Give the backbone structure.
Amino acid sequence: QTAKGLWLVYVILTAILCLLLWLGPMDFFDSVCHAFSTMSTGGFSTQNESIGAWDSVYVKSVVTLFMFIGGVNFALLFKVATGHVGELWKSEVFRTYVYIVLVMLGLFVIAIIANNQAHDWVAVTIDPLFQIVSTLTSTGLTVGNYENWGSFVVALTFILMFFGASAGSTSGGAKIDRMLFLI
């Protein structure tokens, strides 16, 4: 029953993501492909420019949210789906996951501003958040050439590749749970 519940959560999230992407600038085929790719944190795209091909704040935001969800332990998502919303923030791993994303966002924004790459509000909010979550969850989707943000960002991105998100999620990497255990 638990396995069925976990699969149901995954299927429902994938279907919701597909619908949300289809409501945006993507056609049905692209939305299906990107929904499967995002929720599984597989990172494949139908476009050479990845998500950057749509140049849409809506697409970037939706995909960022669902990559983040894909990095959460699915047993925890199942608890939330069955009405135990309070369990989410009680999880030390989930809190650490959120803190890592927020700290990295602050560091990325500082580096982007220091390298004169802050051209608009998206360049210091959505784009770095997208890249952080994509890297941390090992999804690998991109929105642009983040190497222009400077070598500090590239170094942070390299470090994020080793973390991974939560154990029990679809993400790769060593997992935050194991890092907490080592600490």
